[in-house]
Amino acid sequence: MTKNTMSNTDGQSKGTGHPSATRRIRNTLKHMSTSASMMVPVKRAEGGEEVAEPPRWDHKGTDESKRHTKWNGWGYADTKFFVNDEGNVELTGNRYSTIFNTHRVMPSFRPWVEKIMSVDLAYLSLARENYPTLPAPIYNKPFLEDISDRKCYKEIYTDDQCRLYHGHGHTCQEVFELRHHETTKRMPDVVIYPGSHDHVVQIVEAAVKYDVVIIPYGGGTSVSGALECPEGEKRMIVSLDMQRMNRILWVDRENMIACIEAGAIGQDIADKLEKVGLTMGHHPDSEEFSSIGGWVSTRASGMKKNVYGNIEDIVVNFKLVTPKGVLQSGGEFPRISAGPGVMQMAMGAEGTLGVVTEVLVRLRPSPVSRKYSSVVFADFEHGVMAMREIARRRCAPASIRLMDNMQFQFGQALKPLSDTPFQDEILGSIQKAYLFNWEKLEQDKMCAATLLFEGTDKEIKMQEQAVMAVCKEYGGIGGGEENGIRGYFLTYVIAYLRDYGFDFYFMSESFETSVPWANVMGLVEGVNTVISQECKKHGVTVAPFISSRVTQTYDTGACVYTYFGFMYRGMQDPVKAFTAIESAARDEIIRHNGSISHHHGVGKHRKKWVRETVSDTGMTMLKAVKDGLDPTNIMANGNIL
Ligand SMILES: Cc1cc2nc3c(=O)[nH]c(=O)nc-3n(C[C@H](O)[C@H](O)[C@H](O)COP(=O)(O)OP(=O)(O)OC[C@H]3O[C@@H](n4cnc5c(N)ncnc54)[C@H](O)[C@@H]3O)c2cc1C
Question: Is the Cβ atom of 242 under 6 angstroms away from ligand 1?
Answer without folding.
Answer: yes
